[in-house]
Amino acid sequence: MLLRYLVPLFLAAAAATAATAAFVLEEATIESIHRAFAGGALTSRGLVELYLRRIASLDPALHAVVELDADGALAAADRADAVRLLGGAALPPLHGIPVLIKDNIAAAGALNATAGSLALVGSRPARDAGVVARLRRAGAVILGTASLSEWCNFRAPGVPAGWSPRGGQGLNPYVPSATTCSSSSGSAIAAAANMVAVTIGTETDGSIMCPSSFNSVVGIKPTVGLTSRAGVIIISPRMDTSWVRSTLTNVYINLAEPICRTVSDAVYVLEAIAGYDPRDAEATRMASQYIPEGGYRQFLNIDGVRGKRIGILRKDFFRFPSGSIQENVFEEHFNTMRQLGAILVDNLEIPSMKVINDAVQSGERALMLAEFKLSLNSYLSELATTPVKSLSDIIDFNNNHPVEERTTEFGQSYLVQSEATNGIGPTEERAIVKLNELCKEGLEKIMLVNRLDAIVAPGASAHSLLAIGGYPAITVPAGYGSDGIPFAICFGGLKGSEPTLIEISYSFEQATKVRRPPVLQHSSV
């Protein structure tokens, strides 16, 4: 179905102007795009056409894109070009920049937001999600929706990462047989394969960090509440104020987050989408205290790692075979950081990691099952039109469409278990208390005792550690295994530590410059 819309665009784009053709699309950054705009080598319409052409070439193989709004994107690009020609006032930071949003984020207009499910095809939101509204205010052009693991990887165990009935099976652009990993897979694939410069994913527990790692892109997982969840299909939205001495507690809150090819681009996007949203008032009001005056781009400091105390979580994290590429590469990276002036505190351990990594023992599973039903039914109730009204309707839809949804093959056990819950009761209350204790005695304690600015871990190995407290993290390309599969390094910290993490990540990225684009066999661009 996607090809039917893409082929005419592919043919039309072949007639691109000589000026636009001079622009180098591969590995283009927000800054290089703005320079091309300013110099007359590129227009927003021309850029949209180039990305549509590349998607037409690559996506039949990679399955990174669910749906495009070509007409809407071209119209928005024309408006951006017209404003640019007028001159005068400074343009917003993402002016004319195309963006793909994950298929669980609502955008008013032609696009569906379905979390990969056929049950939601034909649904229309009454308005933009909070993060989409901010993207538009920053000048971004919404190009379409990126594929994902159906229901954000919360349908049943054993469903392949990157698969959904709407998007098909997403493929890793570096090694097609490798995993795309977790639910924001399409966003990571699209960014990695240069289908677009900016993508937006969401994360509850690993869904930004893991696909960013396996697809050699940069992912920022911000502090819970820094970006709005309004208008996003999420697993667990609760901001709990009733438990643990009435302290505001963040547990597994799904956030909209940038996935780009560089730290700089991801920071541009974070700065655009972070902030207060009255539709997600409690969470965004609390997190707004962490937003620095002057924004986040000021922390793109090439010498930013100097003097930072960074804890290396050896046990339970850096478990590589002796002499492996990964072991050698990480030791090289640690030496590089020391040479740049970082103070590395080695051989740190969090004793409770076994419990944290076990969703049943930690209480995560029980809480997420209850929260998912509440949040999904709330989202459905706010849609302007929808063919399904509740989680129960979706379960029935899957049972009635076993071939298309592959219900017999994969089941829908998490959906069924979630439907059986009845809100937040004693079981969920105990889970919240336990998760908060794990936070206090885990990351918070090790950061305080060792006076750390950040912790470092390989890939997405610390995803649950960082998820349970709503802590931020930045994932940066670190290397490629002997099989060609990318792997990343992750810098994490306590709530509100984004400025420090940006300094560390940007300094590391500029010193190492690990990322390289995938060699794509299906591109004629």
Describe the structure.
This protein is an alpha+beta fold and 525 residues long. The protein contains 22 helices and 17 strands. It has an eleven-stranded mixed β-sheet with strand order 1-4-2-7-11-8-16-17-15-12-13, sandwiched between helices. Strands 3-14 form a two-stranded antiparallel sheet. A two-stranded antiparallel ribbon has the order 5-6. Helix 15 (364-381) crosses helix 18, helix 15 crosses helix 19 and helix 19 packs parallel to helix 20. The longest helix has 19 residues, at 44-62.
Query: Total strand count, please?
Result: 17
Tell me the overall shape.
globular
- How much helix, percentage-wise, in residues? 40-55%
Q: Return Rg in Å.
A: 22 Å
Q: How do the strands line up in the largest sheet?
A: 1-4-2-7-11-8-16-17-15-12-13
Percentage beta strand? 5-15%
Main pleated sheet: 11 strands, mixed
What value does the average pLDDT take?
92
Distance between the termini: 21 Å
Based on the model shown, name its key terms:
525 residues, alpha+beta, eleven-stranded mixed β-sheet, 40% helix
Helix-strand blueprint:
Layout: H1 2-13, H2 18-21, H3 30-39, H4 44-62, E1 65-68, H5 70-86, E2 98-102, E3 124-125, H6 130-137, E4 141-146, H7 150-153, E5 163-164, E6 168-169, H8 185-192, E7 198-203, H9 209-214, E8 218-221, E9 239-240, E10 249-250, E11 255-260, H10 263-273, H11 281-288, E12 309-313, H12 325-339, E13 343-348, H13 353-356, H14 359-362, H15 364-381, E14 383-385, H16 391-400, H17 407-410, H18 413-419, H19 426-441, H20 443-449, E15 454-458, H21 463-467, E16 473-480, E17 486-492, H22 498-512
Parallel strand pairs: 2-4, 2-7, 12-13, 12-15
Antiparallel strand pairs: 1-4, 3-14, 5-6, 7-11, 8-11, 8-16, 9-10, 15-17, 16-17
Helix pairs in contact: 1-4, 4-5, 15-18, 15-19, 19-20
